[in-house]
Amino acid sequence: MTSSRRHHLKSLMLQIAASWLEQEAKEIEEAKEAHMAENCPAPDLSGDQAALVEICKKLHQAIDKIDEDRYDSEAKVAKTDKEIGELKLRVQELGGVKKPALKKVRMSADAMLQALLGGKHKVTMDLRANLKQVKKEVKEEATEAVGDWRKNVEDKADRKKMFETS
């Protein structure tokens, strides 16, 4: 797709989106006007002063009732917000504290035991001292192998007979 085609498609999409936004704003405004016409009819101001005073009293009573409802709803919202905050804290406590990634530390076994048991305990873990000492036997067959090959074949034949008889 060429850049001019891509730019043209993008501008078309933006025009369509702008028209949708304008249409949505008009619908919201119409819904607001319909709601106001339904719930708040225009007051009838024709009449004498006593009728107007009565209308004002009714309006003040309606305003007081609406203020009470608003205060109650604000109190409910504040209470639920506080509960939500407490529940979030409880969830964090139940989840526990995340343990940080441990760093690799090179430490000898003696130093590790001293750190775990404290400085007053003297414990040594010399693992090499507990190992068995194994002595290697040096074989001298290497020098004999250079000798007569027929002797070696006869030795092998005797070994073969030993395994066959048992």
TrEMBL record:
GO molecular-function terms, A-Z: actin binding
SUPFAM superfamilies, per the entry: Troponin coil-coiled subunits
Annotated coiled-coil segments of the chain: none
Top-level division of the source organism's lineage: Eukaryota
Pfam family, one: Troponin
Alphabetized UniProt keyword annotations: Actin-binding, Muscle protein
InterPro entries per record: Troponin (IPR001978), Troponin_I (IPR050875), Troponin_sf (IPR038077)
GO BP terms: cardiac muscle contraction; skeletal muscle contraction
Any one annotated GO CC term: troponin complex
Family in the record: Belongs to the troponin I family.
Function: Troponin I is the inhibitory subunit of troponin, the thin filament regulatory complex which confers calcium-sensitivity to striated muscle actomyosin ATPase activity.
The protein's name in its UniProt record: Troponin I type 2a (skeletal, fast), tandem duplicate 2
Gene, per the UniProt record: LOC115361141
